[in-house]
Amino acid sequence: MRIIKYKKVVDADAKPDMFSILFSSCFYIGYIPKASGTFGSLFALGFLFINGFQNPTVLLISIIVCFILGIYTSKVMMKKFGDDPSVVVIDEVVGMWITILVFLLLSMGDLSLFYMMVCFFCFRFFDIFKLQPAKYFDNRNTSYGVMMDDVVAGIYGGIAAYLISITKFNPF
Q: Where are the domains of the chain?
């Protein structure tokens, strides 16, 4: 379990292409010195305010495209920054979107601001604590593992958020 990942450079001569830098770091959010994964997850939530982005089909297509591109760009970034680089936050974006997608599919309802926050906290919990099989993927030290541990955390987060929602807990 790593609550704070520190940026390290393992090969100063490696020069990632601009697309890999911008995409994997979500326009440099990954370069925020502390809690870059949390900021990446918040970045993902911002998309939910775009008209139509809460549509499960739109979310699923976005997840698939970003997952595939995330594997490629993470691999490029790992050459310079090593295993599971803190500058790569596209995995948090994909995981957060999966949490939202699972929640929407299970709840079959609208996603209120309150439940967006519940999804956010559920995803961050499972992303930090890495329950199996997320831990397995995290230990693989591959670009696929970088992406997949957040996919698993996203599934767990969506299920947990849904379970919270059926208790009708809402302090507002």
A: 18-165
CA-to-CA separations, 92 to 36, 52, 77, 85, 166, in angstroms, rounded: 9, 21, 15, 12, 25
Taking CA atoms, 108 is separated from 100, 162, 165, 166, in Å, by: 11, 10, 11, 12
Give the residue carrying structure tokens 């809690």: 35
Picking from 117, 106, 100, 120, the residue whose alpha carbon sits closest to that of residue 53 is 100
Rounded Cα distance between 71 and 68, Å, is: 5
pTM over 0.85: yes
Over the stretch 53-75, which tens digit does the pLDDT of each residue have? Answer: 999 999 999 999 999 999 999 99
* Interatomic CA distance for residues 64 and 66, integer angstroms: 6
pLDDT in tens, 75-131: 999 998 888 888 999 999 999 999 999 999 999 877 899 999 999 999 999 999 999
Q: List alpha helices for the chain, DSSP H.
A: 18-24, 36-46, 56-81, 90-107, 113-129, 134-138, 143-165
Amino acid (1-letter code) at residue 167: T
Give the pair of three-digit tokens for residue 81: 């920054």
